[in-house]
Amino acid sequence: MADLYRKAIACLVLFKNLPILTTNSPNKFFDAISSGKPIITNMDGWIGELIETHNIGFSVDPNNSQALVEAIVKLLHMSKNKIEKMGQNARDLAMEKFNSDNMTDKLEMIFKEATKSSSK
Predict the structure, then answer these.
(1) Burial class (CB in 10 A: 0-12, 13-18, 19+), 51
(2) Going along 14-110, which residue ranges are E strands?
(3) CATH number at residue 93
(4) pTM (two decimals)
(5) 94 vs 100: CA distance, rounded Å
(6) Which domain holds residue 44?
(7) What confidence tens digit (pLDDT) does each residue in 25-46 have?
(8) Is the Cβ–Cβ distance between 98 and 30 less than 8 Å?
(9) How many domains does the chain have?
(10) pLDDT tens digits for range 41-65
(11) Cα R_g (the chain), whole angstroms
């Protein structure tokens, strides 16, 4: 997969529009930002917000397939520098917020809190 990501211009993170998926943490999103490529998603919720907030791609309306087409066309017409900047923003986000050391520390904290709660 890593080789495919390296060859891509951008990565698509697409899901069926189901309310439960707005809380989803899809592995393909984390793989994509780690690859340093812009992301196009149709996910509402926190993933779409991250993409917009960190300028790493486009979050489109999950009920509008034309919006997906327009985002892809927009990306294809962007300058190489803008695409590379979005990709670098994605990679920076991966390293700052989702690196394995941070995730391990968060998981350890969750386990410690759960242990405290269950022993009361």
Answers:
(1) buried
(2) 39-41, 57-59
(3) 3.40.50.2000
(4) 0.80
(5) 10
(6) 2-118
(7) 888 899 999 999 999 999 888 9
(8) yes
(9) 1
(10) 998 889 999 999 999 999 999 999 9
(11) 16
